[in-house]
User: Fold Non-canonical poly(A) RNA polymerase PAPD5 from Glycine soja.
Amino acid sequence: MKSHIVLLSPGEHGNDNQSDTFQLEDLALSKRSQMKFDALKSKSVRLDINFKSPSHTGLQTTEMVKGLTEQFPAATPLALVLKQFLADRSLDQSDSGGLSSYCLVLLIIRFLQHEHHLGWPINQNYGSLLMDFLYFFGNVFDPRQMRISVQGSGLYIKRERGCSIDPIHIDDPLFPTNNLGRNCF
Assistant:
């Protein structure tokens, strides 16, 4: 089984179209359900294609993240700044050892849950929140000893000794046995 994807981008003068064609072979047998293309680097376009599979939770994840960012509005500006910070250092792609956007949002939400739980005002300025986030995850949080969950009001859970060799453990809210941080290094 072969399929083709054609990507069109504006030409040098804006009127022509340049296309890049990718051949996809035997997707039904592939264990990989996500494909990434950085074909149009000059235009800074990144394209992710996900194929529906039993483990695909994109729609549920989207709804959950929308709900969490409505509950914690400071998460959005923090995520934008931190995502750019990671991208500038090539640390924003989980398949190359970085932190995915989803993991980043969960870290931010957990941090804001912690701030809220302590009774501190979440409405403090974003610069202070950013510095507190960086301080906490850089100096206080020990990923070898704790794992992260946003379930309920959020938890920092003591990791079982010898339970996992993953550098950071972030519970997937939709599948708690799935460690979203397993690809980070």
The radius of gyration is 19 Å.
